[in-house]
Amino acid sequence: MTGRNLNFKHRVAVVGAGLTLFRSRMLETPQELAWLAAKQALDEAGLTLKDIDCVVIGSAPDAFDGVHMKGEYLADGAGGVKKPTVRVFVGGATGVFVPIAAWWHVASGLCKKVLAVAEEKMSHAAKPHTQYVFRYIWDPIVEKPLNPNLIWIFAMEMHRYMHKCGVKKEDIALVSVKNKRNACGHPSAQLCMPNVTVDDVLKSEVLVWPVQLLDISPTSDGAAAVVLASEEEARRITDTPVWVKGIGWTLDTTHWTNRDLAYPEYVRRAAEMAYRMAGIDNPRKQIDVAEPYDPFDYKELHHMEGLGLAKKCEAPVLTREGVTQRDGDLPINPSGGLLGVGNPIAAAGLMKVAEIFWQIRGEAGARQVKKPVYTGLAQAWGDLMQAGTVIVMGI
């Protein structure tokens, strides 16, 4: 079988998904969180661990769980013991990269059924705040002497986007309000804020201008899982498989000083790869619902434009006009996204893949969008803020 830019042997479908609660501090161990999500995904597919051929594990920096070699550490909980098991890691982009790696296993014919699990326990990270984990990601000569942190970099990116596109802070705050309200329909959500307003966002604590407290997703513990299967197995398992139509990933330069801070080139290239494979040439019309990565409110707008769901500098306009609401023409982050459901880094991206799976099957409950869903998209972003991962799914 030949995609437009990839050769592969087998069609691949998602047949089950699972998700733990997302909370600032969960009492379960990392392995227990991984198993809770994995068990739910297996149950939804009507499978047991004995039915699984291969396992893919995803997690962000080792320091988040307080241990090194997290793939091996999580293997017991993720069902990977005595099976072909691999861990993938591209920082925040990991959550979407996990099902992409699972797709390789099935599409190549190597495995028929793969369990893909992503976990993060950020409450175990460096004290007094998880930001301390990132002290060691900077170039030791060019960047480290400036003693930067991630919010510092994001503030520059947000400021640049606002300046180049003429975006008001009020328009960006609308994203935070939308997603924190949407999260009230999600059983795993950490931040349900049904009455939050733009004024609340604008009056929240300034961290590094223009980034304020309610512009940012919370730190979280949690896990997510999906089961992928070959076409033959998927049709045997369920009458409603959700097909993986396209996958894409890209790395931009690690030097943020060399990137266009107003436009996410890493997402554009990853999306184009996925769209070629899925046969999509007009994403604004052909994507029914999307879950772009939103650790900050401005990043939802940034990523919508990189995904081609809006023209450059148009995403704030679509947001202001209600197009991206759950009952809008192009629902964006109906789950509540990272801003509302929470942000256990690697698990957050896979939560988005699970949301698209449930939206396409019409099983999203109170979060179900108010239009027919045939094709959906999930996207994540990470590493040194330059990795883009995209997955397109459909019936």
Enumerate the spans where pLDDT stays under 50 for 5 or more consecutive residues: none
> What is the number of strand segments?
11
The helicity comes to 25-40%
> Order of strands across the biggest sheet?
3-2-4-7-1-8-11-10-9
The rounded Rg comes to 19 Å
Strand content of the residues, in percent?
A: 15-25%
* Total count of helical runs of at least 4 residues: 13
Shape: globular
Global mean pLDDT: 94
Largest sheet: 9 strands, mixed
Distance between the termini: 18 Å
Order of helices and strands: EHEHEHEHHHEEEHEHHEHHHHEE
| Structural class computed from helices and strand pairing | alpha/beta
Give the helix/strand layout.
Blueprint: E1 12-19, H1 30-45, E2 54-58, H2 70-78, E3 85-88, H3 94-107, E4 113-121, H4 150-165, H5 169-182, H6 198-203, E5 206-208, E6 211-212, E7 221-230, H7 231-237, E8 242-251, H8 265-278, H9 283-286, E9 289-291, H10 297-306, H11 315-320, H12 337-340, H13 345-360, E10 375-382, E11 387-394
Parallel strand pairs: 2-3, 2-4, 9-10
Antiparallel strand pairs: 1-7, 1-8, 4-7, 5-6, 8-11, 10-11
Helix pairs in contact: 1-2, 3-13, 5-10
Structure description:
By secondary structure, the protein is α/β, with parallel strands linked by helices. Helix content is 34%, strand content 18%. The chain contains 13 helices and eleven strands. The protein is globular and about 50 Å long.
Summarize the structure.
The chain has 395 residues and is of the alpha/beta class. The chain has helices at 30-45, 70-78, 94-107, 150-165, 169-182, 198-203, 231-237, 265-278, 283-286, 297-306, 315-320, 337-340, 345-360, and strands at 12-19, 54-58, 85-88, 113-121, 206-208, 211-212, 221-230, 242-251, 289-291, 375-382, 387-394. α5 (169-182) packs across α10.
